[in-house]
Amino acid sequence: MKKNSVLLIEDDELDVISVQRSLSKLEFECELYTAFNGLEGLNILNEKLASNDPLPGVIILDLNLPRMNGMEFLRELRADKRLKDIKVFMMTTSGDETDRKTAEGLGVSGYLIKPLNFNNNGKRKDSMEGFFQFHLRKIFI
């Protein structure tokens, strides 16, 4: 059976913890890989390709990252024919329309403005858990 997995590329520890908590509440198992910048994210993906391990089904990507930001990562990802079809959700504090249009042009599956309601992780649409319950269920189940 194929194992569901998510690659989270995020440099904020609190956001990483929030994603971990939300994933733990799903009714299906989902493995989480974390990277703190785009270069680390690409390294994880390339290691998986080299070892023939399954690629993550979803990438959650912060825009503002050190070393390689989210847009740079997304361009690299989409340029690689082996990685270009992975679903990517941009999760960022930037409400800038240029950022949104650039991300959409690079084929993101969704663009989420932080902060989602991290404190009330109920099943509201604007909660992290609500996001995972809705989107990951559609993708993995």
Automatic annotation (TrEMBL):
The modification 4-aspartylphosphate is found at residue 62. CDD domains: REC_Rcp-like. Residues 5-129 form the Response regulatory domain. Keywords: Phosphoprotein. It holds the Pfam family Response_reg. Gene3D superfamilies: 3.40.50.2300. This is Response regulator.
